[in-house]
Input
Amino acid sequence: MAKTIITLGREYCTGGRYIAEDVAKALGIKLYDKELITMAAKNSGLSEEAVAASEKRHTHSLLYSLYTMGNELPLGDQVFILQSRIIKQLAEEGPCVILGRCVASLTKMMTALLVIERGNDLNAEITISDSLTPEFAAIKADRGHTIGLQAGETVRRIDMLYAMLLPSANDAASVLASDDAGGDLAAFAARMNARAAQLGCTSTQFTCAHGLYDTGNYSTARDMAKIALACYANPAYRRIADATAYELPATNVHPARTVTTTNKLLQPASAYYRRYAHGMKTGFTTQAGRCFVTFAQQDGHTYGLVILGSNSQNIFREAAELFDWAFTSPELHPAPAETAPAPEKYTLFSFWQKLLG
Output
């Protein structure tokens, strides 16, 4: 068999691992999931105890620390980087199956990143093409969230970015993709995959700009972390994602209206509001479950979370509690070691003065 890499989306509660096992067995090729990759990491210079402890800290609720500023990377992050390298090595060695999962609207992070990096005038107006009418109909059929965009409507790129990242409007994502790729949505998806590969993603495939269509659109928490880190490093992306609300100006079709963020860590009225939180992206489809990527920064430390396959009752609570723990944990923020008082220094005069009283 030629060197073929099969990546399967581990859809929410559908037994993705068992399907992957059957595919690998039928084709006579290896299957790599988190457990097997961890085994490979153990054989790469780290003790089993160290890797096991790291896994317990960094995979609970599928939350991953992206990076810590100012200090040497902790062991968990070293394992994170090592496992990423191992995935690449495994893919080079021969045919295999690597598991991923649907990530819903987290897909929009890549769409926004590409649009911003393109460098076009974000304040410029664009007119929505008639060619997007079938796409809008498909989004509606899938019950995806929209802001009711229509063919012939004139909008600004910056407004579409806010509409896509705050309330997660799927039609805004398609408008941006069509504008960027000259009307060719498939070509834009190809650019998404190319950029993901540049960022070091090894188990990601994008088939659309918004993530509403789960079939063939998947990633992993590690790959999402890499994409999120690139977005977090982009000032324009952060400015948009950190907004709690934004007024969309009137167009030739719609009056002015306000859109708000779906990130409850940014909403002051929410029980999960955290002043140190930064917006990134939320996501949901039935197959993907509740997904969330966010950052928090305080006292010189920055942490990032990737949550896949959670539910509406737990996702924001998990994120808030983990951030609270991260910023107060003695394990992550040990108290500075006590230093012995410096010995007194004497001049010849002070020495004799002390000795003689």
Notes: The mean pLDDT is 81. The chain is about 40% helix and 15% strand.
